[in-house]
Every structure is written in C-alpha cells, then in structure tokens.
Amino acid sequence: MPILEVENLSVSFKQYTVGLKYKKSTVISSLDVTMEEGEILVVVGASGSGKSLLAHAILGILPSNAITSGVIKYAGEELTPARQRVLRGSEIALIPQSVNYLDPLMRVGSQVRTSVKNGNAQAKQREVFNRYHLKTEVEKMYPFQLSGGMARRTLVATAMVSGARVIIADEPTPGLDSAVISEALNHLKEFADNGCAVMLITHDIESALKIADKIAVFYAGTTVEISPVEHFSGKGEQLRHPYSKALWRALPQNDFIPIAGSQPHPNQLPSGCLFAPRCEMAAPDCEKVRPVMRNLRNGMVRCNHAT
Ligand SMILES: Nc1ncnc2c1ncn2[C@@H]1O[C@H](COP(=O)(O)OP(=O)(O)OP(=O)(O)O)[C@@H](O)[C@H]1O
Ligand code: NI
C-alpha cells in the first residue's frame, strides 16, 4: 500500500478584482501521485507547474486564500487539516529550499532537539550532527554563523531526527557544485534506504535520475506522466507523454531541442488537453476533452493517444 496518495487534487486561489468580486485561478487541476515506502519519487516540470504547491498541500501549509479539492491520504487514511497539524514535522517532514526556514534567534542544537519526538533529544541531536559532520561547537551557534553547507546539513539533520516516514525535499540543490549535489542526494538516498518515502522536487533531472525510482512529470498544474526511472534513457522512446519526451530531448546531454510555445497561464487554461496547443500529435478530440490519467506500460499517462 502506498504511504501517501494524492487523488484528483485541485488548488485554486481567490483573486479579488474589484471590491468583493473575485475570480478563481486554478493552479493545480486533477493531480494524481502516490509515494511508496523506500522509494524516491522525483517531481520535474516547468517553473510554475505546481510542484511546490503540491508539497505545501501535502503539509497543509497553503496560504489561506487557497481553495482545494480532492483527497490526500497518509497510510491509507485521509489527511485532514487536523491530522496534517499533528503529522507535520513528525511523520511528514519538509526539507525546504531556503535556509531561512531556520529560526534566526535559536541556537541550532536546540532547533534540532525540538524535532526529536522520542528518546533522548540531546543524544539524538549529537548523533545526527556527528553523522552529518557538524562539529560539537556548531550546537551552540546561531544560524547566521553557519556556512551555507552547514545550514543545509542542519536542515537535513532536522528531518532525520524527526523520524518522519515521508520526506519532501523542494529543490535542495540549486546552484550547488557537483560534490555538494552528490552529498545532498546521498542523504535523500539514505532516507529511502531506511524505509522512508522521499519526494524530490527538482529542475536538475540529470542528477536526480541517479537516485530516482519513479519520475512524475508536471505540466500546467497536473501530472502528465509517471514513469519508472529506466524509461528516461536513449531518445526517450519509452516515455509515454509527448511533453516528457520533449523535456528529455531538451536536456543539453541529449539533443538540446527546445519545444516551441509556453506552458499556459492558470487564468487561460485550454478546455481540452492542457498540452494540446504545443503537441505535434494533437488530434481534434484533444482540444475538446481533458484526458484522464491512465495506466500504460508500468507507468501512467494523461494523453489519449500515447502508446
Ligand atoms: N499564493 C498564491 N496566489 C496565487 N497564485 C499562486 C500563489 N502561489 C503560487 N501561485 C501560482 O501557482 C502556480 C504554481 O506555483 P508553484 O510554486 O507550485 O510552481 P513550481 O512548479 O514549484 O515552480 P518553480 O519550479 O519555479 O519552483 C504558479 O503559476 C504560481 O504563480
Ligand atoms: Ni517550486
């Protein structure tokens, strides 16, 4: 059984226009994804495709003007806002992109200790510091005294001591050099090897493929494909959705062929398939009905014509 299931999730924002009038802009529509224990799910897709909002929806930290529908389940039971408050930081942990998530006024040792749910907090904090090469004196430091690398390792240490079973890492590697990227990815791999379900949100497909089990491809606020990692190879022949193939071919180490056009804006979503306006395979029916997610060759796809 999956540890986390997202079914038919939609997220809209109320945007006030004049006075009390508002329009709804839908930023995530009918999104489906599941996470298994011991597995790394990598989430890729253009900027603005809804990756961070999915993470925030799972953790229950969307802004108050967000309207959501659909179901998120944790360990088979619906994740209600009340359950999210209980599980956030204990069973489900976020490794945020920004080190600004550390409390600037609290010594880092104490911050990590507050995340320990069971057992001796100090012993656990020291053990995890040792494991991530954070010296004993770091305990007493404030976040501003840490180097970038130390701050990131502190965030990983916080997730580690929490004992969470689901770890969501939102772009943990932007702008880092390759040794530091490998280190960050190895930490995530360790979480999965210990039985956690890991979601890695990233733009760096090439690095992520080294640790991924499954890849979810997002486009304009929805999943268009979920594929086992092996299918991201060669010319992308084994991929299912035309957008995933295009994304794969656009990588520098492949043919570096970009696709024309751009992802539709949330206020101007096409009524049929969201990718149809840019799709070489688009047929008249694609412009009429939104395809649903279906199983295909050990993965899933949201395209009526994919084979
Ligand atoms: N509070 C908000 N109010 C209105 N729209 C929002 C809000 N937060 C996010 N959005 C919109 O939701 C869409 C998805 O945003 P999201 O941050 O999830 O994208 P992303 O896939 O994480 O992008 P990136 O790769 O750049 O981090 C974007 O179009 C964004 O402008
Ligand atoms: Ni994001």
Automatic annotation (TrEMBL):
<keyword id="KW-0472">Membrane</keyword>
<keyword id="KW-0533">Nickel</keyword>
<protein>
    <recommendedName>
        <fullName>Nickel import system ATP-binding protein NikD</fullName>
        <ecNumber>7.2.2.11</ecNumber>
    </recommendedName>
</protein>
<feature type="domain" description="ABC transporter">
    <location>
        <begin position="4"/>
        <end position="245"/>
    </location>
</feature>
<comment type="subunit">
    <text>The complex is composed of two ATP-binding proteins (NikD and NikE), two transmembrane proteins (NikB and NikC) and a solute-binding protein (NikA).</text>
</comment>
<dbReference type="InterPro" id="IPR003593">
    <property type="entry name" value="AAA+_ATPase"/>
</dbReference>
<keyword id="KW-0067">ATP-binding</keyword>
<dbReference type="GO" id="GO:0016887">
    <property type="term" value="F:ATP hydrolysis activity"/>
</dbReference>
<dbReference type="InterPro" id="IPR050388">
    <property type="entry name" value="ABC_Ni/Peptide_Import"/>
</dbReference>
<keyword id="KW-0406">Ion transport</keyword>
<keyword id="KW-1003">Cell membrane</keyword>
<keyword id="KW-0813">Transport</keyword>
<dbReference type="InterPro" id="IPR027417">
    <property type="entry name" value="P-loop_NTPase"/>
</dbReference>
<dbReference type="GO" id="GO:0015833">
    <property type="term" value="P:peptide transport"/>
</dbReference>
<keyword id="KW-0547">Nucleotide-binding</keyword>
<dbReference type="Pfam" id="PF00005">
    <property type="entry name" value="ABC_tran"/>
</dbReference>
<dbReference type="GO" id="GO:0005886">
    <property type="term" value="C:plasma membrane"/>
</dbReference>
<dbReference type="Pfam" id="PF08352">
    <property type="entry name" value="oligo_HPY"/>
</dbReference>
<keyword id="KW-1278">Translocase</keyword>
<keyword id="KW-0921">Nickel transport</keyword>
<dbReference type="InterPro" id="IPR013563">
    <property type="entry name" value="Oligopep_ABC_C"/>
</dbReference>
<dbReference type="InterPro" id="IPR003439">
    <property type="entry name" value="ABC_transporter-like_ATP-bd"/>
</dbReference>
<comment type="similarity">
    <text>Belongs to the ABC transporter superfamily.</text>
</comment>
<dbReference type="GO" id="GO:0005524">
    <property type="term" value="F:ATP binding"/>
</dbReference>
<dbReference type="GO" id="GO:0015413">
    <property type="term" value="F:ABC-type nickel transporter activity"/>
</dbReference>
